[in-house]
Write a structure and sequence with these properties.
mainly beta, eight-stranded antiparallel β-sheet, five-stranded mixed β-sheet
Length: 226
């Protein structure tokens, strides 16, 4: 009887721990649950900011991101995780809106969206084979055409992005707030009003810095109207 009781208690503890793990892991998902109150969405600006220039065209963009968080307003500035990742934001440059998933966050007013543009570590599994090859790992992949020649630009930089909401959204627990990340990748390749040749290694630092530092406001965040 003693053995049976101890065995029963042990199995009960395991069951409780397993249940706790499941509950804690349900704060983010790819589909809405009964308690989801945030949907993370993203889109791209498909227009060239330099008139109707035919010298440069982007066909697709992939961005590897992780640790998407919302930072609360006020003195505490607590952050809550929306998506852990790494996950791929894939832009097809036709302004299509896509969903990165759903999450449950505390009811609050939030002032910033934070995320990391992430270069894979050597021991990480890539969610997309294009982010790793024999030369290394990448964080951003852009495909397009420059002066009639096809190009693939790969960035090897990681960077933390901090995007401010204006106005700040108040997220409640009775409806789903749609947080939209808009990406303007054409701005990454512009310097002094002209397009940089993405195939010229001399332009790599300027392009990477435009991505990393969000110098031209190529990333913006807002709440989509219901």
């Amino acid at each position: 009887m003693l053995f049976t009781k101890r065995k029963f208690n042990f199995l009960s503890i395991i069951a409780i721990l397993f249940t706790a793990i499941i509950i804690n892991g349900c704060s983010e998902s790819t589909s809405p649950s009964a308690i989801s109150n945030v949907e993370m969405k993203y889109t791209s600006n498909s227009e060239s900011p330099i008139g109707t220039s035919s010298a440069f065209r982007i066909d697709s963009v992939k961005i590897l991101v992780r640790e998407i968080k919302l930072q609360a307003s006020g003195s505490s500035g607590d952050s809550v995780v929306v998506k852990t990742g790494p996950l791929v934001l894939e832009l097809n440059m036709n302004a299509e809106v896509k969903s990165a998933g759903f999450a449950t966050v505390p009811e609050n007013t939030y002032r910033r969206l934070k995320f990391e543009i992430h270069k894979l570590n050597s021991n990480e599994v890539s969610p997309d084979p294009e982010f790793r090859d024999s030369l290394g790992t990448y964080s951003v992949i852009v495909k397009g055409e420059y002066l009639g020649t096809r190009f693939v630009y790969r960035s090897t930089k990681s960077a933390h992005q901090f995007l401010v909401f204006n106005p700040e959204p108040s997220i409640n627990t009775t409806s789903i707030t749609k947080v939209m990340l808009r990406v303007k990748p054409y701005l990454w390749f512009i310097e002094n009003g002209v397009y940089l040749n993405p195939m010229d290694p001399a332009n790599e630092n300027n392009i990477d810095n435009n991505i990393k530092d969000n110098i031209n406001g190529s990333f913006e965040v807002y709440v989509e109207a219901n």
